[in-house]
Amino acid sequence: MKNPFIIILKTCRIFYYEGIHGLLIRVRGRLIRKTAITDSTVTRDSERKVWEKSILNGLEATKMVVLDDFQTVDEKLDHNSSNLTLLMLVPPPERGSGGRMTMARILKKLTESGIKCYVAFYPEVPDHNFKKYEHEWMDEFDFAPNECSILKYAEATERSFDIAVATFWPSAYAIKYQIKARSKGYLVQDFEPYFYPPGSHYAFSEDSYRLGLWGLCASPWLAKKLSQEYKMQTVGFELGVDKREYHQLSDVKRDKKLVIAYIRQHTERRGYELVMWSLKKIKEQVPDVRIEVFGDPHLPIGDFLWIDKNHGILSHEELCKLYNYASVGIVTSFTNYSLIPNEMISCGCAVVDLDTECMKSVFPDAAISLAHPTPKSIADAVKKLLHDNSLHESQVLAGLKYIEKVDWERSLEKINIAVRNFSKIDAV
């Protein structure tokens, strides 16, 4: 502690030479420095707590990789398909999720074929939210009350099933190590290691393909990749399109200057920044074009003057109208392809997507425009379609010809047969 006499002496000297004003400035400066030091200490403590919490959350979220191993049920499968049971672990509902919609379609098809299907949410949802999630799942996908029962995860681990199916990498570990079933599979809708930078999550998700589960893969590219690189038994299927929901409307006039784009800020594989800068370049080079986006309810704070409208999240009916109004639609995915290109094509909208191995394995050359992942390349592809009417018309016609062969029923039947073959069940 400083000597009080020294402090009084210094105070008197400041007052004598600088007056009351100088003294007040010195006192104010000392208070500010003291507050800054205190705030800095608080900030460091808060940051440390946030860091520690993130570490604990990371361990909690990945603990499935060290779950105890259940032995696969040994009894022979009952060939009476009316008695077969199947459990699918699905993520909790999320409005507008195409992946969950595909899961629901598969469950409906397997139920129609005579398999009794069950669902359990994974990660496990809290008991106080279970009824809410159950209602959302049944309501969004229009399941009848007893069509596909939803079990609590704890209950699912206590039962035995003929077939159990994972739907994303954490649930693959749960199926492998905590669910009792005679046949265990994995619905793979994307190459999930690409969701992460190299690190723990990349390694854990990649290793989920080495767990010995058979795979239903949502593209020929994905089936080939998992089979060749991970020696996984796979069957690939093509994503379909519901033509009752997505089709050309006779009462909607297409706007030749309307470009639409799918954006999703929190999903890295959608290349949000790439799409936004591509749209800016398009607007600069074609000032009279109208640019509208959808898929994300909010644009971040900022001046995005090149975006004329953000539709947010739309219903199937609203999307169909938008695709019918638009001349060109931009959809980007750096991993597996999505449902959106098929839906746009079915509505007569010319599509621009990324030039990837997956896209080339699915779409004929003339049915879609593929661009390198640069704003200039995407903007150039869009401009060609806007300025060259014959190119636009030929691509739309080629797309419609391609989409004639795309059918959910064909893909779902392929999945039904694959599930039974992998599980050594005769198809019915």
From TrEMBL:
Q: Which domain of life is it from?
A: Bacteria
InterPro entries the record matches: WsaF_C (IPR055050)
Write down what this protein is called. Answer: WsaF C-terminal domain-containing protein
Pfam families tied to this protein: WsaF_C
Q: Which Gene3D superfamilies match?
A: 3.40.50.11090, Glycogen Phosphorylase B (3.40.50.2000)
Q: Which residues form the WsaF C-terminal domain?
A: 258-382
